[in-house]
Amino acid sequence: MSDPLSRFHAVIPAGGAGTRLWPLSRAGSPKFLHDLSGSGHTLIQDTVARLRPLVGERIFIVTGVRHAEAIRAQLPAVPAAAVLVEPTPRDSMAAIGLAAAVLEARDPDAILGSFAADHVVIDQSAFQECIREGVGLAADDHLVTIGITPTYAATGFGYVQSGRPVTGFPTALHVRQFVEKPDARQAAAYIATGEFRWNAGMFVVRAARLLDLLGRWHPQFAADLRAIAAAPERLEEMWPALPKIAIDHAVAEPAADEHAVVVVPGAFGWDDIGDFSSLAVLLPDPGRGPRVLGERDLVHALDATGLVVPGSQRTVTVLGLEDVIVVDTPDALLVTTRERAQDVKALVEHLRDHGRTDLI
Amino acid sequence: MSDPLSRFHAVIPAGGAGTRLWPLSRAGSPKFLHDLSGSGHTLIQDTVARLRPLVGERIFIVTGVRHAEAIRAQLPAVPAAAVLVEPTPRDSMAAIGLAAAVLEARDPDAILGSFAADHVVIDQSAFQECIREGVGLAADDHLVTIGITPTYAATGFGYVQSGRPVTGFPTALHVRQFVEKPDARQAAAYIATGEFRWNAGMFVVRAARLLDLLGRWHPQFAADLRAIAAAPERLEEMWPALPKIAIDHAVAEPAADEHAVVVVPGAFGWDDIGDFSSLAVLLPDPGRGPRVLGERDLVHALDATGLVVPGSQRTVTVLGLEDVIVVDTPDALLVTTRERAQDVKALVEHLRDHGRTDLI
Q1: Is A185 on the interface with B (CB under 8 A)?
Q2: Could you list the residue ranges that cross the membrane (chains A, B) (predicted)?
Q3: Cα–chain-centroid distance for residue A106?
């Protein structure tokens, strides 16, 4: 059989508002459309660039009506047909499942990898090495997830627990279970075992295998996706009836219970940039003063650390504050602390409650 | 002799950049041109309104070339001739002395009161009562200062120490000495004696008496001021040679050493708004959330106290910060704490050092 990598396709679900990154990220301009790593490219541009060496032109992006145009503008080299537009948001199982059904119809041996549009990876070659192993495992009909080696006892991610190694592969391990986001004590206990890794929501699997697994627990869902792939003109009609469920709950967790999932450990520097505190960690440390996402010359700080995002061409000055977060945009300013970064979500709710939907 | 109040003139020196109130106050737009009390009027407009019941039209404003136009625009009811323009800044003795010389030339019995353009007074009628007593004392040839009853052990003001009462006046006391800004321990000790009051830089005195006193320690200075008043066309030529000295050092302190100064205690709620922390105290307490100078609807705060100045029409959000100061202007943003409010001056120096004179 041919090199499985030649049958490997990347599927990039591009959704989610990133409420905790307000006012940078907005409902109309979610985080994958922004340069949050200071790379000079947006997160979705970086995601595509990272996958190119593995898949070449074999890329699908699945997104909502609202963002399709911005995505095409940011990725002129991606063919228009590669952007699958969901009529309405239906969570990750429908998004990835639609791509799987389209791929299966073209090639029953097609392998897909799903990668969120808004994650950051530091070591690109380590990432690619990991995915290559995952593709080999998928060709053997495993459902593969990537488990990120934890660098601290994170409470913002779910975890995947591994068991014995997979014979014939350099690093892969059988998955014992997926677990939800833990509290701090539980997270520390997970780390101590050495068996738990962060669930980064990356899956590599044969397209047909994914739909077959889905069909075991949600037969109508799998059948509907295959029907849409066979008759794309039915998308608008059938889409609204699809279940709104994450791929983790629909397939990965029940499959793990049946020992059908394997994990490839990844230690390539990864983050989903869940809030401004994790964004700060990803940015280069200037040695003194706050980290800056944007034009450093616009920021003047004395006795201050944290993160400043000068996003309105105005000068931002900070005096005498540790771990402060200042995000300056043309119509809204946020001042908070790294400690309260998760609660930016509550602030956005507060704005909604006060009728300021124009800002969110 | 006529009621001395009919010979009483207000002199308002309008100068000083108010560096600690950057970025609200700028070199080109000092604090007296801003509404810092939330009254809907600028500080100089409030100052003039406060003095009107005492002096009617008998007002002089002494200011620099750079601000004369803005002052005339803010005070259309003040005659153009009432705005004396200094060719260059020469500190308070020259500014008040020039007004004194002009007044003396018109009326040897004229009494003047000097009141900074950028101070805040809460209880207007108590203030007026105080000044009326001062005018009576000035008519008896005293040099009168107003001593503010301290409400806390301030280290940001100089103090005036009083001795025995002045016979024939309800509240006035003889001055023993003026003292410089104390440290915290010294300030507490001053307060404990009951003899010390804040030196608010307000003086009431016969114009001729002020110039005579000045003539004792700086004869050439007094002679030059009188020469300018006699021949106003010589202002430009003579002004640059005048000493750059504060009225406190030039006259008030040496006069106190000769027991020639009296103090009228004032308990009318006063502040010179030296920094954002004292500005915060002056603004109404909203009960919860930070105090706001400006449009309250632009500010959304959760678990936050301090001061927000929304000065650019943008929405300002603050989450999880106690005693924070956020000052938003169209071209510059300041984020600091009440504790560090005094150090805003250092931040402005930092901007100057980095060539950002456009912002200061």
Answers
A1: no
A2: none
A3: 26
Cβ contact A333–B339 (<8 Å): no
8 Å CB contact of B333 and A332: no
Q: Which two tokens stand for residue B228?
A: 């300018």
The C-alpha of A86 sits at a distance from chain B's nearest C-alpha, in angstroms, of 33
CA A209 to chain centre: 22
d(CA B228, CA B211): 13
Question: How far, in Å, CA of A88 to CA of A67, rounded?
Answer: 12
Nearest CA in chain A to B301: A347
Dump the DSSP string for A221-248: HHHHHHHHHH-GGGHHHHGGGS----HI
Measured between beta carbons, the chain B residues lying within 8 angstroms of A314 are 312, 330-333
Quick check: B352 contacting A, CB < 8 Å?
no
Which tokens in the block code for residue B353? 């050092």
- What does the alpha-carbon distance between residue B12 and residue B67 come to, in Å, rounded to a whole number? 13
A312 phi, psi to nearest 5 deg: -135, 15
Query: Could you give the dihedral angle defined by the CA atoms of residues A187, A188, A191 and A197, in that order, rounded to the nearest 10 degrees?
Result: 20
Question: Taking the domains of chain A in order of start, what are their residue ranges?
Answer: 4-271, 276-359
Secondary structure percentages of chain A, helix, strand, coil, to 5? 40, 25, 30
For residue B23, whether the previous peptide bond is cis, meaning omega lies within 30 degrees of 0, is: yes
Omega of the bond prior to B265 within 30 degrees of 0, cis? no
A4-271, what's its fold?
Spore Coat Polysaccharide Biosynthesis Protein SpsA; Chain A (3.90.550)
Structure token pair of residue A317: 């000055």
A183 backbone dihedrals φ, ψ, rounded to 5°: -85, 175
C-alpha triplet B342, B347, B350: angle, nearest 5°: 145
Instruction: Record the tokens describing residue A216, joined without a space.
Output: 């075991």
Q: How long, in residues, is chain B?
A: 360
Sign of torsion over alpha carbons B44, B45, B50, B55: positive
d(CA B89, CA B95): 8
Grouping H, G, I as helix, E, B as strand and the rest as coil, residue A168 is coil
- Are A335 and B321 a contacting pair at CB < 8 A? yes
* DSSP 8-state symbol, A150: P
Q: How many CB pairs under 8 A join A and B?
A: 114
Residue of B nearest to A312 (CA): B331
Q: What is the SS3 assignment for A298?
A: helix
| Beta carbons within 8 Å of B97's beta carbon, 6+ residues apart | B210, B211, B214, B221, B222, B225, B247
